[in-house]
Hints:
By secondary structure, the protein is mostly helical. The chain has twelve helices and no strands. Helices cover 63% and strands 0% of the residues.
Amino acid sequence: MSGTDGLYNCKDPAVWRSVLAVYKDVVEAKASKGGKAGKLAALDKWYQEELLETVCSRTEKFLTHAELVQLMEWKLTRGKFRPMLQKMVTGNSEDSVESCTRKAFKLLPDVTAAIQELTKLKAVGPATASAVLVTGAPQDAAFMADEAVESIPGLVPIKYTLKHYILYLDKVRECAEQLSTSDLVNDWTPHKVEQCLWAWAVAQKVKPSLIKNIITSQNKPSNEEKGTEGRPRKRQKVQ
């Protein structure tokens, strides 16, 4: 997806909500293409729903060793598979995982400090650290998914550094704030924006029909966009 003409530049919250609504369908479509439908769908449901609920329900937010290992499996199944990372992350002790993740969540909303704490763990870089933070603070962080980063102008090529992640997060936060301002529901978070950017980019590659109707509806002028003589004005297409 082109960064300059993509979803990121769309200001209509209705379009974003439509994309968010097909997120699970995009996950299933991507899984089917890779021949891992059951595994990816189950892992994504666990991460997006079960893990977030579990972490946020704890008096003090943290991840267990088993949860971090499974989070890494989710990340690698959903994106680029790097078997060495999966093996390395298991080398962290239970105590170190709980201690680092507790400290990281307590450091929020200072995301920079939180990620610096998390990257003390083996195999945890800024991208994995961002996935950890989302589980307990989706209002503060967004997962550094390649497809989401590439969807934002000025962030390509991707650098898996803390500096590059903060540039990405600032853009995502800005987008979430703009959407919340113009949306009556007013519940946009950086994590929801990231999910939409990922879904839009991946759908175009694996199953364009999932977003075809969204694109079509965007091309239809609303009553407010019609001229005084009833002629529709041109509206920029979301690509």
